Amino acid sequence: MKFAKKIVIVFLLISLIFISTVVVWAQEQEQLTSLEEISVPSAILIEASQGKILFEKNSHEKRPGASLTTIMTMLIVMEEIESGKLSFDDILTAQDDVASITGSHVWIKSGENITLLDALKSVAMISASDAAIVIADKISGSQGAFVSRMQTRAGELGMFDTVFKNCNGTEQEGNVTSAYDIALMSREISKYPEISDFTSTWMDSIRNGKTQIVNTNKLLKSFNGTTGLKTGTTLQAGSCISATASREDLSLIAVVLGCKTGVERFENTTKILDFGFTNFTTVEPQPPSQGLNSVKILGGVTSSVDVKLKSGVEILVRKGKEKLIKSKIEMLPEVQAPVRPGQRIGKVSYELEGEVLLECPIEISKSVDRLNFFSSFTLLLRNLLTM
Fold this sequence. Notes:
Elements: H1 2-33, E1 42-47, E2 53-57, H2 70-82, E3 91-93, E4 113-115, H3 116-126, H4 129-140, H5 143-157, H6 179-189, H7 193-199, E5 203-206, E6 211-214, H8 219-222, E7 226-234, E8 238-247, E9 250-259, H9 262-279, E10 280-283, E11 294-298, E12 304-309, E13 315-318, E14 326-331, E15 334-336, E16 344-352, E17 355-364, H10 373-385
Parallel strand pairs: 11-15
Antiparallel strand pairs: 1-2, 1-9, 3-4, 5-6, 7-8, 8-9, 10-13, 11-12, 12-17, 14-16, 16-17
């Protein structure tokens, strides 16, 4: 009887382990395939540092982008600050027509002075249309001139689905973009950490604390690692978002366009970001253990010189495949002197399942001069003295 009970207990334990394994496997499969059924007209997910696309749905479909347009406005501001042409302390004066602009407002009055810092903060956190107009007038003298600059910058970034008609994203015929293009400019502006200081803040104030502003991005309260970036809503565009988030060494950008409600926008963006963080990771590529010591030098004062691998870039891979990455060396067997530090003589390729993920150059580590009569005599004399 006791033996039979033991058999039953062992059987039950094995069954529980099997059921748990099946449940975990099923959950993992659901995470991998759930994005096929997300209820958004257009979306994209990219890794921020390298721009690799992890998921897309109608990502080049041209649609109104609502206030996501102001990502370009903010990008131009940061580039002006970087070049020294503007500073956060600069004073902007509102023109006569600013109060009549549609969209979100911080109620800037005609003739009012506002700092660039307050104006940029207002655009970043609540999509203030009046603040965007004041910025455009400051930088380019008029809204039309500023929009032309926005379009030029869009072309430089490869945003070929985009036509800007204004600087604040209010509804206007022909004012279109795509999820892909928004991801491009979101990635570009993410290079400026000052922007995330604004976009990751839930509540702040302008006008020396007199006007309080609350961020429209509810992911800041609900999704761990959210750093921004921008929400937008109009009747034509629907509810839109470009969301940025970072966990450990992985940073993602998710763009969702055309949702029917704000709730649908945030729910689907959460699914997309969860998919990215659940299924992908970054790894630091390890240099090959052999073959990267030195290279033969022909006609030089030394017969060989050490080489170095220039890397510092992490590789994005599916979780669980980190150890399957293979490295391959392609390097010249010999180099004619003279050679100089940084001179490229080959590369190391990192591959996964036939796909090249990263290529790192192999470089000369130090100078080697050509051997001539004077250097030959000097070398011979040195050898004699050390005998």
